[in-house]
Amino acid sequence: MASKISSYFFFILLLVSAAAAILVFLPFITPLFLGATAAVVAHPIYRAFSRIIGMRGKRSNIAALLTVVFVLVIILVPLYLVLGNMYAEIQSLYADLTDESNRSQAITTLNHVSQSLSHALFDVFPAYSFEDLNVTTYVKSALEWLFGNLDQIIGGLVKVAGYVFVFLMSLFYFLRDGEYFVRKFIAWSPLLDNQDVFITKTMRRAVFSVFAGTLTVSVIQGALTGIGFYIFGIPAPVIWGSAASIASMIPGLGTSLIIVPGIGYLFVTGQYLYGIGLAIWGIFAVGLVDNFLGPHLVNRGVNAHPFFILISVLGGIATFGPIGFVLGPLIVAFLFALLDIYRATFNTVTETEDQIH
To answer: Would you say residue 356 has pLDDT above 50?
Structure first.
């Protein structure tokens, strides 16, 4: 009886301590989670630095520090350039739309086309009332909202300085002591050691599937779309390239949601050769990345259908916010790992029952 009371009391203390620890870590769960995820992706870089300078004593600290600096440069420099160019492009577009005396010929042409389209729709569907489809009005309204909130969005980045610090610290320690943490997880887990190893390997593959697969391909396609828009003279190529990065994750449609309207814009403004050139660029430069590089990178990750990866990403973002981009696929990958363990564990029982029946 005394041993049962002692066991119950121990598990109550364990649950209370775990709940208290969750409350302690909860304010920083996002940077901690991102730090662990980034450590998995950057671990090959850490190993490369370790081979160069060694891993004994303080040298492992140097390798982890060099990896953190490398990751920081890879993330912050492109982010700074993209945000800076987007801000400048939004200002330029807003000025073009608000200054009617200096309005570009492209905007004027699009206004005429949209108004002609509204009249044509009224002729085809006379029972419905179509207001003039003025491109300037809608684009101006969107830019006013974006321009009015962009300073607030950029200013909010200053508030996450503490998160960035926690992210960098967690990245450093997960790189340096990641194997130690994995060994502790295996030692504390009530599952069999081989099952724990299988789960950790599956989670690592899931991280690579999101970053090396979905995210990398979307960034490359967005960059190529922006380059194509810049080459063929479409305004705000950085904004449209960023939009193409997001659209590339939509199966079946992808970057065509951005490139096709761009081609239409060139044809409407009378730039037919540029429109044909952008179509060729979209098919061969942007499309080939999705058809050849994408499957190769995704296959290196979790063995799941692209549809499930997409739903896990979108569902994760809808449930957990931006962190759900990574958390959603990891949750699905963890479920698949448990299902594989279940199948491997109970496979002999199922086969025996099938033989009996």
So the answer is: no
